[in-house]
Amino acid sequence: MLATLFTRQLLFDGVVTGMVYGLVAMGIVLVYRSTRVINFAVANLGFIGAGIFALLVAQYGVPFWIAAVVGLALGFSYGAIVELIVIRRLFTAPRVIVLVATIGIAQLSLAILASLPEIDAPGARFPVPIGAVREIADVRITGPSLTILIVVPLLAIGLGWLLNRTAIGKAVKASADNPDLARLAGISPKAVSTLVWAIAGGLATLSLSLLAGAAGSAQNLDNLGPSTLTRALAAAVIAGMASFPRAFFAGIAIGIIQALINFNYLDQPGLMDFLVFLAVAVAVYWQSRQAGGETQTFSFAAKAAPIPERLRSIWWLRQIDRIALFLLVAGAVVLPLVVTAPSRHLLYTSILGFAICALSLTVLTGWAGQLSLGQMAFAGIGALLTAAFTRGINVDIGWGETRFLHAGIEALRFGPSLVFSALITAGIAALIGVGALRVRGLYLAVVTFAFGLAAQQYIYQRPILHGDFTDSVPLRRTDIFGIDMTSQRSTYYVTLVVLVVAVILVSRLRRTGIGRGTIAVRDNPDTAAAYTVSNTRTKLRAFALAGGLAAVGGSLLAANLQGVPSDRVFTVTDSLMLVAIVVIGGLGSVSGTVLGAAWVIGLPAFFPDNDIVPLLTSSIGLLVLLLYFPGGLVQIGYAARAAIVRWMEERLGAPPPKAQHAVPARQAEAREPLPEGVPALRATEIEVRFGGIHAVDHASIEVNEGEIVGLIGTNGAGKSTLMNAIGGFCPSSGTVELFGEPVARSASARARQGLGRSFQAATLFPELTVRETVLVAFEARKRTGLLSTALFLPPAIRSERRHRSEADELIDFLGLGRYADMYIADLST
Fold it and tell me: Please, are residues 283 and 231 in contact by the beta-carbon 8 Å criterion?
């Protein structure tokens, strides 16, 4: 058994492949150390150089070394050009936005590779400098393997020496740690960034060339991109995005494990991708605990200018957004009646299905700031679950011939299957969200990307989901709650109805405490907790809601195709396309998802023979919008609405002065007087440690009812840390009692008990308005329920109206009425 697991040949092959993974991982670490961004284009940067290299040798007969020099030069040049055109313009942007730009660069690189002339010779091999095959000690050493053994270690050593021992390496470290101080020392961070991206382009070209040489084929270079990137990302994360040697040796370890898994578990395709996902999840979680968590979030939503109070009496202006939505829905209803071809109905339904899936990213990324690059995996799981429920589930769980459990469910109609699959997928998404509670922004993108690839290669193939089908899993579309779905047109109308309901539901949630609380947690989690909004519950709710929406969209997409072709739909590529949809349409905007889906999915189908349109709807379109119109297509609509509002204001003239109204004082809730000797607040033996630093050492404090206590100390004495410990904002030991009762563990729960907290940094929630910020605080009085709000139940409607009325009274009393609908980001502190 051990001989089968650990043959010399397997170990050798694993080391060889792992060296290339380690080299790519070093490129990821290089870019991260210099620019603090995870480069998702690091593998695809090599497509152009490697593709031209293979084309010159295999198609045009150019000598190997001349073609190799040309290919490497193109790789270095392409990396530098990308930095100058894209990364340079986003130099001061949040790093998570630059990460999304690298996705556009990756797609653009793939499009350029596809546009290269094809190699005519069938079965042409990728050119390698050494073609001989040798056998030493029962190990077969091919020419490509020998090339990797010689080239990669030399490059790894040289790169480590360059970054750690030379002035260039010191400049890279300096520009990454403190760009302003580096400028004072005569170092240009922008020039350093260009150099680093050029090196990354050369490394990617060499790495893909080595992998393609080992694989043998000169065609299908694009197949090397996602798997190579995922394994290199895993190695880089294991190395903490900092250590070149650890990244290199982690890549070798991944290569060895991959060789062993692929040989000994041939009946488990994709198992390695699943193990890589688990490794990434564990490594990211550990890194977040060590470093205090990744704090960057994805947020640059377009903001709609508020309609002034005096113009809201004009009904058509007050309802202008709904009028535009009604016209859009009316056009969607008429369209299949005008265009009767079933193939067109298939396309239109696909657009609607992707729009529903994109709504899930609106909630998860646009509101919660959790950047997911594997969201279509939940759509695929939901579609496969729906298919399983419609055909019936019959599963034996056991080991060998021993059966522990037999699970059987009779076949269900499409409607109940859709509901059950959405609920189960929501639970799975919440489970994934539990592991992501401490992780946001860049690291979460790595985890979800690995999850998307693991789902595509492994999870979809599980018997309970895939059944006994070898290719596409059939999905019978009969009816949904009595509505016929047998024809393509009826499927379109059902999907349209579901999309409209989903848009109304998500829009409703955004206007209530659900949406406000989610954005508050994204923008400022500590202040939101002080407002009694729980970070944990809010994030899990966003993950679950997004997972359920994605499952509904995926099931309708599968019903449209009458099957689940998991190798062509619900892939990592589709997940990245979903990100392009919400960014191009307008991140955080409900209507923007529909516009983005029509743009990204619809335009290429309307112009099937045009090679430029697909680029405009994906890579180039994504990059252009990130660079010039970060608000997306919906920003154009907002600009048009703002122009109409200005025109109406000019017609009406200057507004009359607004009278201020006093607000009667609210009666404080009566509370039983405290027993004699019981303080209002007592903190005993509070201790806080940050690694080896003892920030607070057994501190105690008491505050009696009606008493004001000041805490005085020098800078660094631990005053703020003690306040954080008492409020529940940092891990600590000791006891805290409020009115004689022990406080809860989380900050939000302590706030609900009555332990209020303000912060030295006077920051609120940049993407909420003044009114919405006040309404977030009203969550302390009555929590907004998800189900009651989604179902438009009367108690939820009355509660929301009462909160809005009380918030408006408070805002008017403070003389802030004219600022009520302005965003916090647009106001001074």
Answer: no
